[in-house]
Amino acid sequence: MAEPIRVVVTGAAGQIAYSLLYMIARGEVFGKDQPLILHLLDIPPMVGVLEGVVMELADCALPLLRQVVPTTDPLVGFKDVSAAFLVGAMPRKEGMERKDLLSANVKIFKVQGEALDKVAKKEVKVLVVGNPANTNAFVCANYAPSIPRENFSAMTRLDQNRASAQIATKMGVPITSVNNIIIWGNHSSTQYPDAGQGKVLVNGQWKSIVEAVGDNAFLEGAFVETVQKRGAAVIAARKMSSAMSAAKAACDHMHDWWNGTAPGQFVSMGVFSDGSYGSPKDVIFSFPVEIKNKQWKIVGNLPISDFAKSKLILTGNELQEEKNEALSVLDSN
Ligand code: NAX
């Protein structure tokens, strides 16, 4: 068997982590023959809860799990890790302005970036889930200059999975019969879920989703809105935010980064923009990517409709604004 790798989950006492830790420790991300040492990072008020999570992980009797390291010290949490799931973040509280939320999170992700820079493996893959995920990833990468910035990403996979599920339901096919749906831009309500390049398997044949659905008003209307507002719909129903599906999406994201994408297929990840498709440069923007040898590459030259272009501008502007606000918070500290 391979040597164990160290994997950190932050926000380890929270609700997403409660599902995520189990999925990782089962071998669903790094493989069924890859032993793991799990680092669990949270903040001091959560130490008691964290102890409970450690007990439950032991009681799961998981063959791949060699050791669990619970901690509130980022320098211990990030020490020698090969993969980092940054789930912990400051939640939005009632009456909190976006700027206050951004400001609290900028501070968290600055500290975590600095700790990653000091003690993580240089090849560490960092996935930011905690919101505002794209801008948090931007801040984190900026404070970890010794780690290649390609190693920082933000999660839009939950949005992609939600979009694929909508199309599968609409067409009455299994989820495995839908691929190449794109999430563009920010993980926020300005994101643009785009089925324009997507494919669906109908009667044994892969067809374009646009042709198979045959309803542009739906694809540019209800479909987009349902995906954009799905998080709020889950909160309204469950009285808590998406957790099981967020954990599954985090696993899918890291799994594909680690193992690669299938030929001809792409997935969406928030990554540093090179200005592709008219997006602002140097923000963390969600693009369709192909992955090989643990390196992602933005899929180029996809035909983009005028409708899509207008949506990309909107979400790009929001990311640029968030980045400027984050930088102004950092300058004033
Ligand atoms: P919870 O409030 O259940 O858990 C968050 C945990 O993070 C808490 O235990 C808290 O103590 C911890 N934490 C806070 N600051 C920390 C720090 N500096 N270091 C380490 N841990 C810290 O939230 P949960 O439902 O698990 O959601 C976590 C984050 O994911 C939130 O920011 C949420 O908005 C975000 N989400 C992002 C999604 C995405 O698609 N990118 C979807 C799901 C989710 O809404």
CATH architecture descriptor text of the largest domain: Alpha-Beta Complex
**What's the CATH H-level superfamily name of the largest domain?**
Lactate dehydrogenase/glycoside hydrolase, family 4, C-terminal
Instruction: Note the main sheet.
Output: 6 strands, parallel
Number of helices: 12
Can you write the helix and strand succession as a string? EHEHEHEHEHEHEEEEEHHHHHEEEH
The largest sheet has its strands arranged as 3-2-1-4-5-6
Radius of gyration: 19 Å
- What is the percentage of strand-forming residues? 15-25%
* Spans where pLDDT lies below 50 across 5 or more residues: none
Overall shape: it is globular
Bound molecules: ligand NAX
How many structural domains in the coordinates?
A: 2
Question: In the CATH scheme, what's the topology name of the largest domain?
Answer: L-2-Hydroxyisocaproate Dehydrogenase, Chain A, domain 2
Number of strands: 14
Provide the helix percentage.
40-55%
C-alpha end-to-end distance: 47 Å
CATH class descriptor of the largest domain: Alpha Beta
